[in-house]
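Predicting holo structure, heme C bound.
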Amino acid sequence: MSNTKPSWKPGKKDALFLGVVLLVIVLLVLGSSERTTKATPNDDVHRAATSHETCMTCHGKDGVRPQPVGHASSVQCFQCHTQPKDWQGAGK
Ligand code: HEC
Ligand code: HEC
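Done. Tokens:
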């Protein structure tokens, strides 16, 4: 073995690196399946709530069911929480 002819052979470090990469991928896949955002309930209240302001009367900071701390500030609720099937607002 001389330094003038560098050749690459998978060694223990490479195997370890590959192992870590695979572990990270597996954890990401498992993690993402747990992160499915809750659907908006398909009940009278939620079918009839057709504006973000209405949602926030209950889900705002002082509402009966506030959004969790650190919740996204986006007003497009249905982008993440699936819209109720029989929602009465304007088309999708
Ligand atoms: C009159 C009060 C009220 C209004 C208005 C309202 N909600 Fe809710 N919402 C609740 C309550 C209470 C719950 C929890 C109990 C349940 O599952 O019905 C809930 C549950 C939810 C959930 C499920 C998460 C959980 O805690 O189980 C989502 C998502 C949600 N609401 C989104 C919305 C969106 C989006 C709007 C506007 C289109 C909206 N809500 C309007 C009272 C309200
Ligand atoms: C960028 C994505 C996103 C948007 C937009 C969004 N949410 Fe959420 N929301 C989440 C996530 C993620 C959670 C946390 C856990 C879960 O519900 O699975 C959450 C949680 C909640 C909860 C609590 C659920 C519980 O378990 O008690 C409520 C209530 C809620 N959101 C209401 C709303 C309302 C109302 C809007 C519109 C103003 C909205 N969300 C917009 C992503 C979003």
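The helical segments are 12-34, 44-48, 52-59, 77-80.
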